[in-house]
User: Fold this.
Amino acid sequence: MSQFNNLPKPPLAEIRPQEDTRHGITRVDNYAWLRADNWQEVFQNPDVLDKDIRAYLEAENTYQEAALEDTKDLQKSLFDEMKGRIKEDDASIPVKDGPFAYGLEFVTGGEQPHYFRTPRDGGDKNVFLNGDIEAEGSEYFRLSAVNNSPDHSLGIWGYDDKGSEYFTLKIRDLESNEDLDDEILNTGGGGVWSADGTGFFYTALDENHRPSKIYYHVLGTKQSDDKLIHEEKDAGFFMSVGGSSLDDVVYIDIHDHQTSELWLIAADDPFAKPKLVAKRETGIEYDFTEGGEEFFVLTNDGNAKDFKIMSVPFATPEKDNWVEVVPHTPGRLILSHAAYKNYLVWMERDEGLPKINIKDRTTGEIHSIEFDEEAFSLGFSGAAEYDTEIVRFSYSSMTTPSQLYDYNMRTRERTLLKTQDVPSGHNIDDYITRRIMAPSHDGVLVPVSILYHKDTKLDGSAPALLYGYGSYGMSIPASFNTNCLSLVDRGFIYAIAHMRGGKDKGFQWYEDGKREKKINTFKDFIAASEHLVSEGFTSHDRIVAQGGSAGGMLMGACINMAPHNFGAIIAAVPFVDVLNTMLDDTLPLTPPEWPEWGNPITSKDDYEYIASYSPYDNVEAKAYPPIFAIGGLTDPRVTYWEPAKWIAKLREVKTNDAPVLLKTNMGAGHGGSAGRFQRLIEVAEEYAFALKSSGITK
Assistant:
């Protein structure tokens, strides 16, 4: 299927063999030198990158640009189409909170959000934070959300101007729209106010980009004087700080991918020693939300694999006092919960579809908000206030633009607040969405959500973009995506495979795609590709597979296992050097990731199993489809050298002339460009690669 001809000679990375011996097993890595020894400094200042590494990355960028040079007009058309589907001067529906209602908006031509507030029941709008102004002069700029103080006079806001996810916090006066002198560096983004608004809690990141300490900052003082409130010594755990809906409790949440621990601080006593709720037990997760005189606890304790909800008195929140209020039901996964004065609300996924349930805390009566489409997505945004009858949620499907509703929990009335505007036009009747079930290698049925144009012939001739992720229990929703319409309108089938490793069919679905069962994720995706072909949607040489981060690992593993199943591959910030990364305990995410993948440092079994599928380690001398890999120089999650090493090795050993392309974003991190239109430039480039690979030029 490759349409890549007359390309210039590709760059070849220098081979510098390095040996590594673990558990009596020796591997040779020819491209380990691409990992900068000073990677921590590079995150803070990309200019200090080793000159040889920079030269190689820039040579790859030049080659990638040459390979897609003939798609420049197509990229421009794609960008214009995708931008044309976005309402430029868009604004959120403000959320009421005390005397004000808070929202954000975009202006025509603007890349960044503008935060505003109005009087609670309407009136003059005050834009107190203009993201476009703050971003001036920055190649990359990303805002964190604003958290207003209890008296609504001040707001904590943050920004990352390198893509490394080190956020700087500042304090804005919400009347004058000016910042105070306070500036807090190297944080995880965001802060939680004390009850009197004279200071706030925040998470500090260490030199290895780990959230290891919680500090309290008193307004008007230096960061160096901030008080250490809590420290997590185990590098295998993430730590964050959050606040309750009543602003009277501060939560310190500590967790990895399978274990939780929570500490509480009274917001009116910020220097008090945090109170432990329940000490960590491997495999036990729990999460609190405040409900006045009680907390509600979402937990899998007691073999509640798909979670249950407990209650506990506010004054005595210890585990011994937990009482069940929503029982565990196998196969019905409770995803999140929230409490209000008279209601308990939770979102669950049952038979692969989301549902919002509401329980009257007085009568105990439960009712649900349900929908009828075959595949859809719900987003639960709750409410900013505790004493309310109104919660807010969004609904969309692959054909239906997002709709925002306010829902009255007492009267059960829905009020449509907003329907996503597609300025260039969108006719729902032009598109068809379906959910099919692909039989995997062991007979398990894998859901696949599909979108296509009503005029597309289902005779196997249509190209298809098959997207997958399948890790960390993350489920990919069948939601409305204006970008993919540019492919669908050109005859593509757009498909999402919901493999094991996500939680699409419950917690067991996740467990059956992690650690020693990770191979199921890859086989499920391969099965999805085969089912699309057997059902006549497409042909193997017409399938462009796409995934990012852990989904990029999926791409690499699948083309090692079944390269002829795919006509082309798009791998964004791909986690492809799995074994080496899991062996490097200095990297930001390695210790917290061991529960997900295994620890190859201490376990020979884990080492050998990861080695059996790690994409970089399993590149072989065989034909591979065209590949487009994208990395970010300052990415702390999937470091730039993973895709760089992968592409270098592929180019060295593959036996055919299909191009393998690498683009390293030299000024951004894991998520690519942060501006709403800047990101579309990157999507247009990826789609142009997919279209060119499929022989479509316009």
Remarks:
- The CA atoms of residues 149 and 532 lie 52 Å apart.
